[in-house]
Amino acid sequence: MNALAPPRVSGPGGTGRPRPRSRPPLSWRRRVLVTLGGVGLFATVASWWYLEFSPAVLLDGTDAVARLVGRMLPPVVDDPGRTVDLVVETLLMALLGTVIATVLSVPLAFLAARNTTPHPVVQAAARGVITFCRAVPDLVFAIVLVRAMGIGVLAGVLALALHSVGMLGKLFADAIEEIDEGPREAVRSTGAGRLAVLVSGVVPQVVPSWIGTFVYRVDINLRISVVLGFVGAGGIGFALQSSLRSLSYDAALGMVLAILAVLAAMEVASVGVRHLLLQPSARHPRRDRAARWIFGAGLLLATGFAFAWLRIDPLTMVTSAPDVVAAAMRLVPPDFGLVGGQLWEAVLQTLAIGVLATAGGIVMSIPLGLLAARTVSPHPVLAWAARGLMLAVRSVPELILAVVFVAAVGLGPVAGVCALGIGSIGFLGKLVADAAEEIDLGPVEAVRAVGGGWWQVLFSAVLPQVMPSLIGSSLYLLDVNIRHSTVLGIVGAGGVGFLLYEAVRTLNFEFAGAIILIVFVIVYVIERLSGWIRAQV
Amino acid sequence: MSAPPATAVTTRGLVKRFGTTTAVDGVDLEVRTGELVVLLGLSGSGKSTLLRCLNGLHPVTAGEVVVDTVAVHRARPAELRRLRTDVGFVFQQFNLIGRLTCLENVLIGALGRVRGPRYGLLTWSARHKREALAHLDRIGLADQADQRADTLSGGQQQRVALARTLMQGPRLLLADEPVASLDPENAGTVMDLLLRVCREDRLTVVCTLHQVDLALGWAHRLVGLRGGRKVLDRTADGVSRAEVMEVYRRLETATGMAVA
Ligand SMILES: Nc1ncnc2c1ncn2[C@@H]1O[C@H](COP(=O)(O)OP(=O)(O)OP(=O)(O)O)[C@@H](O)[C@H]1O
Ligand SMILES: [Mg+2]
Questions:
Q1: Confidence at residue B50, expressed as pLDDT on a 0 to 100 scale
Q2: Which of A184, A262, A266, A458 could be cross-linked to A201 through a Cys-Cys bond (beta carbons 3.0 to 4.6 Å apart)?
Q3: What is the mean pLDDT of the segment spanning A379-387?
Q4: Cβ contacts of residue A145 below 8 Å, gap of 6+?
Q5: Of all helices (H) and strands (E), which one includes residue A41?
Q6: CA-CA distance, A333 to A362, in Å (whole number)?
C-alpha cells in the first residue's frame, strides 16, 4: 500500500524516464541473474521450511474462507449516517496527511536535490531524513504517535504525513534533478535573488510532475488511512476492526464496500485530474489555466474543510512538534535485550513472510498479468476480467486481507503469507500486464510468421521482453512485502509487528525503539540491495 | 542616472579554466559604451565562456572583469545580482520556461527589480504586466501573450526571450549565438529586430555569431578567438572577408600538424 513508485509504474507523470546508461557486460549480467535466481529459490525454500507452511492448512482454510464469505453475505450497513461520517473522515485524513507531507517535502526536496542543495552535507542529511521516513512503516509511526498524543485522527494524519515524506520528498527531489538548467540560468541572468531563481526558474518546470506525484500519493494514503484505525489512529479502521472482532462479518463487508466505492471514485477522479492538469492542450491556454485554478482552489478549500471536520487546529501542526520529538526521544536508546531470542525469531519470521509472499505473488501474478495484457491475452473478455480482479485486489488493504486470513487459517505467519501473497497480485500483476502491453510487437509477428502458436509466441517473443521489468518489479515487490510484513503482527498475522505493538502498548518504548531500528535497517538494506541488483540486470 | 562611463566592459588577462581545460586564456578586451562587438571563432574557442564571465554566470579563474563600474571578478553575490539587472543575456536555446505563457516569461525579466519571489500572473502588479505587454508588442508578439511559450516557433521564442531581456531595461546586452538554432529566414528577422532594438535603446552589445556575413553587416568591431586567445580585434570598417576567415583557421601545433 505504501511505497515508492517503481520504475515504469503508471504512477506520477514522467518520473520513470529511462536514462541512457552503460550496461554491464552480458556475461556478468547472466551470472548475476543466475545467482539471483538461485538465492531467490533457496530463500523461498528456506522460508517455506521455517514457517512450516503446508498446503494442507490452506486446503482446510478454503472451507473456513467459504464459511466466512457465507457469513459476510449479504453485506449490511448498520448505521448509514455513521458509516458515511467515517468514510468522509478517512478520506479527509488521507487528503490532509498528503497536504502536510507536501508542505514538509517541498523544502526538503530542494535541500536533497543535487542541483539545488546548498551543500553536499545538507544534501546527504536531507536524503537521510527522506529515506528514514520511507523505511518506517506508516503503522509504526501511527502506533508511536497514538501513544504520544492520544487516540484520534491527529496521530493518524501525522503518521500519514511523516511516512509520505519518504515518497514525496524523493520523487520531488528527483524531479528537481531532471530540470532543464537553461531556463534557470536565464532567470539567474536577470539578477533575481536565490529564492526567486528557485521559484521562477525551477518550480514551473517541476510542477506537473509534483502534481502527478501528489495525486498518486493521495490515492495510496486513502488505502492506508482505512487501516490506521486498527491502532487507534482514526478513520473507519476502528469501526471495521470492532465489527471484525465481534464477528459481524456482514457489517464489515458493508464497510469494505463503502470504502471500495470511495476508492473507485478516487481512481476516476485522479484520472480526470491528471488528464486536465498534466496533458494540457496547446490550443486552450485559458481552459488549462481555469482547470489549474479550480484544482488549486478546490484543494485549498478541501484542506480547510478537513481541518474543520477533523477538528484539528492547524496550529497543532506546529505545537505538536515537541510531542512528536518527545515520542521519538523515548525510543532511544534502543534496548535489544528485553525479549532476547524472541525478538530475533520474530525478525526472521518477518523476513520469511516477506520472501514467501513475494514468491507466491510472482507465481500467481505472471499468468494473471499476461492474461490481462491485451497484446497477449487469448480473449479480450478474459483480459478485462483479469484487469478487474487485479484492481479489486489492489483496493483492499493488506491488513484487511490479513484479518480475513487470520479468521480462515488461524493466528500466525501463514495468514500473513496468504494476505501479502494475494495482495501482491494486485500490484505485480498490473505491472506485468503493463509491461506486456508495452512490448515491441515485431518479434511477436516474427514468431507468428514462422508458424508459432500461442505458447511459442509467449515463450519466444513476450517473456524475453518483459523479463527485465519483471525482475525489477519483483525486487521492488519484495521490498514492499517485507515492509508490510513488519506490521501484520498487529492483527496477529505473524512477524515482528506483534512485539512492536505490545511494546508500545506496555510503554516499553526503548524496546519498541530497538524493533523500529531493526525494521529500518532491514528495509534500508533490502532497498539498497534491490537498487544495486536492478542496476546490474 | 549619472552619465555612463565611456567603456562598458573591460577585461584584463581574463582566464577561465574548467578542470584542466582552459576555455579562455588571457583575454584583454575593451568595449566602448554604445558599441556593437561581435565575437567570432570556431566551436570550442571560448566565446560562450567569455560572455558568461562578463556577467558572472561563470566565476573567473584569473584576471579582471569590469562591467560598468563593477569589478565582476571580485563582486559579492548581492553586487553581482545588482549588476545582472543591468545586463541582458540572450541564449542560443532561448531558455524560456515552456509551460508558462509568453507574458509570464517576459515578466521574469523584471525579477531583478522587485523584492522576493513571484509565481503566477497574480503576483505581478498591473504596471509590470502593462510594461511586459508593451515589450511583447514591440517585438510583434502581443497577440501571443497568453499562449504557452513552447507552442511558438523557434524564431518567435527567441523574440520572446528578447522581450524578457528588454523587460530588464539593460544597458549592456550579451547575446550568445542568438540565431544559431534558427533557419536563415527567421535568423534574419530576429537579428534585424535585435539590432534595431539595441540601436533605438542605445545598448552596448557583445554578441557571438557564427555567420560571418551577418557580423560584417552589423558589427562596429570584430573580435576573433582561437583556442581561448584573442587573435583578432579591429573595427569592422573596411575589413576584408579573408581577414576574418583567418580566425577560423584550424589550430596548429608546434610541429605544424593540424588539430581537428
Ligand atoms: N561548464 C563547462 N564545464 C567544463 N568545460 C566547459 C564548460 N563550458 C565550456 N567548457 C569547455 O570550454 C571550452 C570553450 O567552450 P565554449 O562553450 O566557451 O566555446 P564556444 O566558442 O562558445 O563554442 P560554440 O561555438 O560551440 O558554442 C570548450 O573546450 C568546452 O568544452
Ligand atoms: Mg557557445
A1: 95
A2: A184
A3: 86
A4: A155, A156, A158, A159, A233, A324, A327
A5: helix A26-51
A6: 39
Residues facing residue A514 across a β-bridge: none
Is pLDDT of A17 > 50? no
Query: With 50 as the cut, is the pLDDT of residue A3 above it?
Result: no
Tell me the chain A residues in contact with residue B86 when contact means C-beta distances shorter than 8 Å: 191
ipTM of model = 0.86
Question: Of B70, B97, B122, B172, which to mutate for an interface test with A (greatest number of A Cβ within 10 Å)?
Answer: B97
Start-to-end CA distance of chain B, whole Å, equals 49
A185 and B91 within 8 Å at the Cβ level: the answer is: yes
Q: How far apart are CA A355 and CA A494, in angstroms?
A: 14
Is residue A21 pLDDT above 60, yes or no? Answer: no
Neighbours of A81 (CB within 10 A): 8
Q: How far is the CA of B44 from the centre of ligand 1 (A)?
A: 5
Instruction: Output the CA torsion A480→A483→A487→A489 (10° steps).
Output: 90
Residues in chain B: 260
Contact B111 A196 (CB under 8 A): yes
Alpha-carbon distances of A185 from A107, A123, A195, rounded to whole Å: 21, 21, 13
Give the span between the Cα atoms of A504 and B166, in whole angstroms: 64
**pTM of the entire predicted model:** 0.82
Domains A34-65+338-537 and A79-329 share a fold: yes
Domain A79-329: give its CATH code: 1.10.3720.10
- Using alpha carbons, select from A525, A226, A215, A521 the residue that is nearest to residue A396: A226
Report the number of secondary-structure helices (H) and strands (E) in chain B. 8, 10
Q: A34-65+338-537 maps to which CATH number? A: 1.10.3720.10
**Residue A163: exposure state from Cβ atoms within 10 A (0-12, 13-18, ≥19):** buried
Buried b (16+ CB within 10 A) or exposed e, A519-533: bbebbeebbeebeeb
3-state secondary structure chain B: CCCCCCEEEEEEEEEEEECCEEEEEEEEEEEECCCEEEEEECCCCCHHHHHHHHCCCCCCCEEEEEECCEEHHHCCHHHHHHHHCCEEEECCCCCCCCCCEHHHHHHHHHHHHCCCCCCCHHHCCHHHHHHHHHHHHHCCCHHHCCCEHHHCCHHHHHHHHHHHHHHCCCCEEEEECCCCCCCHHHHHHHHHHHHHHHHHCCCEEEEECCCHHHHHHHCCEEEEEECCEEEEEEECCCCCHHHHHHHHCCCECCCCCECC
Cβ atoms < 10 Å from Cβ of A275: 11
Numbered residues of chain B with Cβ closer than 8 Å to any chain A Cβ: 55, 57, 81-89, 91, 93-97, 99-101, 108-112, 116-119, 146-148, 150-151, 161, 164, 168
Distance B38 CA to ligand 2 centre (A): 13
Sign, CA torsion B81/B87/B88/B90: negative
3-state secondary structure of B253: coil
CATH topology of domain B1-86+203-260: Rossmann fold (3.40.50)
Residue with the larger pLDDT of the pair A314 and A103: A103
User: How many contacts, defined by CB atoms under 8 Å, are there between A and B?
Assistant: 93
Q: Which residues in chain B show pLDDT less than 70?
A: 1-4, 250-260
